[in-house]
Structure formats: C-alpha cells, structure tokens
C-alpha cells in the first residue's frame, strides 16, 4: 500500500483440503489511467477460514508468497511485550520437516524475510516460478506445525538473537534510545501502542516455552491470516497447491484483536535523553489521523511538501538557504493510530532550540498563508509516479495488496488507494494542517543530546 511505503522523505547537506470456493476474477488491466487502475486477481476462502488472493502476472518467471497475520505488538499483554516480534524470529527456526528454511530457499534462488509492527506481522518470499510448490509447502508447514516443533533450545537461541538485536538496533545504535522512549512519551499507560515493538528486556527474558506456544495457538490461525500469491503461475495449479498444503491446517477461532483508541495529545510535551552521539537531534511528533481515515493521505502529501527534494519547504529553508540543519526528514507514519514526525539534525554551532524555532516558524507560515496550487499538484503527481514505479515489483505489489486489504478491508487496490490522493484538495489538506499545527499542546518535542550536554537542551 502506498501509504506504508512512504514513511520518511529525507535530505542531507553534503551528505482443510477443500475450499468453498467462490472465485472472483477481475479482467481489467493495470493502467495509469486517471479513471481507473486495477490489478487482476482471483479470490478464494478455504474451509479453515484462510483468505487467499492470486495476482497473476506472467511478465517475469518469478513468484511472491505474502502472508499477513492480524497480530502485532498491539495485541501483547502487560508482562508479555515483544512476543509478536520474538515469534517472527521463531518462525524461521522451521519444523522437523524443514529444519532450515533459508538453505532450502536460497538453494533454488529464492529469498525471504518478515516484519513485525504494532498492527501486523507479515512473512514474504520471492523466488523463481519453479519454486512455487516449495515456497507454499514451507509456509504452510511452519504455519501448521511450528508449535509442535518448538523447543526450549530454539526459544533460548532466538531470545538471545532478539536481545542482541535490541542492543544493536536501539540501545547501542546512535539515536536509538529515543525510539524506545517514544511510545511511553506519546501514548498513555495501557494503550496498545504504549510500548516498543521489540519489547522490554525483562519481558523477553521472562518468556517461557508455554507462553510462546500459547501465543502461536492463539494468533497463528487461518482465520487470522491472509495469503497473497503473485507472479508467474497457472491459476488452477496454484489453487490446487494452496488447498493441498494450507487447507490441511487446523481451523481455530479467530482471536479478538486489540481496539486502538485514538489519542489527541502526547503524554509528555518534551523529553530529552542523552546518548552516545556527537550531534544533537530533534524530533517533533503529533498524533494524526489513522490510516485510511480523512486527513491521512493529505498529511502524506504535506510531508512531501515539507521534506521531499531540494525545493521542499523545510529542506530549502533549513538545509540550503539558512544552512542550519544537516538533514531534515518528515513523514506521516500511518497505522491504526498514526504519528506525524519532523526530524532534524543541527549544523555545528546551531542549537536544537534555534532549529526547533525555525521549523515551527515555517509551520506557522504555512498555517497562515497556505501552500501554492503548484506545490500541491506537483507533489500529488510525484506520489502517483512513485506509486506506479513501485508496483512493477511483484513482491511489492503482493505486499501492498495485503496491506491495503488489512487496513481498508477492501480489494479495490490499487485504485482505492490512489483515489485518496487524486481526490485530495488543497483545502482538505490545509484543514487538517491547521487543526494539527495551530495548537501547541498537540505537539511532543523529543531531543537526543550528546552525553553530558542534557542541560544544554531546555
């Protein structure tokens, strides 16, 4: 989905066997027409509840298998944080039938990966078309049998991997500590987003084998997943293989997933942390409209106006004109609860307070005077161009289809996603911009200072 692939715009200075089966075929072609843009697909739902979508494209002899589960860090309970991400790692340990997934895939020229977010966990593989059955077998096998194959040894190994990842990607990564602190600064205690996706050290260490098996049995069920298969395959053969392997997975009830309350104001208006860095960094954050809601696409457009390219508002002002910042990034971080971020690093001799004041001055100017039609239309056109380019990749196309299906509850992709941008107006955008940026109490300022300099940031 376009939204989830457009996180930040950055610039730097000098730097069961049977299925029900109702199949739905779309015969239209993907096109850049302003009237319509669609991807041909077929849909079926297996008796165990798994929804399957086939996106056939014989352009290249490649296939993509993309599996989404409605489980993320939002579904974790107190004392059990990090389970969604930990289980993502455990899924790659394989089963008795396939003890080493990577070797089997790579030997045939395929590759795979996964990601865990607040809202979802997804697994994706891209491989030559002659590996379709192998890839489907691997995914269905670990989906069906991973809990049976789980051992204390596997848990301990992946626990250590996750703890090391936390250390390398957050604790010891420059500026990484702020991302561990940010959820608690922005969301009230008890909110599903009020802890980092990677979880706490204490909770990860406390995870027992039974905890992990219970998590799998609750959330890794067919009714809680969607499978998208894209690329070069024969539809009848693909459907036969999917029924053979995935249809055999036991049906279990779909779990209740967390409700995500929308938040207006941050918990902390200002937070400063010290880190082992040489240069300060400032991040301004606002709670913003949830993905697919009114204002979401408009803020994506606005982020591009602010920070996409040399002529964008903040890049031009801070990096080139006044040379106050070495880098500036902006993004509408969309999810079931969203955040709008502006992130900047000052040049030597420039304080974070001066840089913050300059960013806020530019925002006030836009709130008061608006943006030009040329800025707005140029940005919309660049978003659509980038979107169409991304869709050339079968892996991206399958993942975006699954993403749009998850968030919009619709198969009108990519047309429905593009429509949000095509129908957006300057007035629509300015309405949400003025609502968000006029009220200073809606903003949280997060600052990272070099060790020993925290007193320099007020």
Keywords:
disordered N terminus, 2 domains, 458 residues, alpha+beta, Cytochrome Bc1 Complex, Chain A, domain 1, 15 helices, globular
Please write the string of helix (H) and strand (E) elements.
Answer: EEEEHHEEHHHHHEHEEHHEEHHHHHE
Strand content: 15-25%
Point out poorly predicted stretches: 2-34
Terminal Cα span? 39 Å
Total count of domains: 2
Q: What topology, given as strand order, has the largest sheet?
A: 1-10-11-9-12-8
Helix content class: 40-55%
Q: Strand tally, please? A: 12
Shape: globular
The helix tally amounts to: 15
Oligomeric status: single chain
CATH superfamily of the largest domain: Metalloenzyme, LuxS/M16 peptidase-like
**Main sheet makeup:** 6 strands, mixed
The CATH architecture assignment of the largest domain turns out to be 2-Layer Sandwich
Query: How much is the average pLDDT?
Result: 90
CATH class group of the largest domain: Alpha Beta
* CATH fold name of the largest domain: Cytochrome Bc1 Complex, Chain A, domain 1
Structural class label: alpha+beta
State Rg. Answer: 23 Å
What is the secondary structure topology, with strand pairs?
Elements: E1 9-12, E2 42-45, E3 51-56, E4 62-69, H1 83-91, H2 101-107, E5 111-116, E6 121-128, H3 132-149, H4 152-171, H5 177-186, H6 201-206, H7 209-219, E7 225-231, H8 235-245, E8 270-275, E9 281-288, H9 296-307, H10 313-321, E10 325-333, E11 338-346, H11 352-369, H12 373-390, H13 394-408, H14 415-422, H15 426-437, E12 443-450
Parallel strand pairs: 3-7, 8-12
Antiparallel strand pairs: 1-10, 2-3, 4-6, 4-7, 5-6, 9-11, 9-12, 10-11
Helix pairs in contact: 1-4, 3-8, 9-12, 9-15, 10-11, 11-15
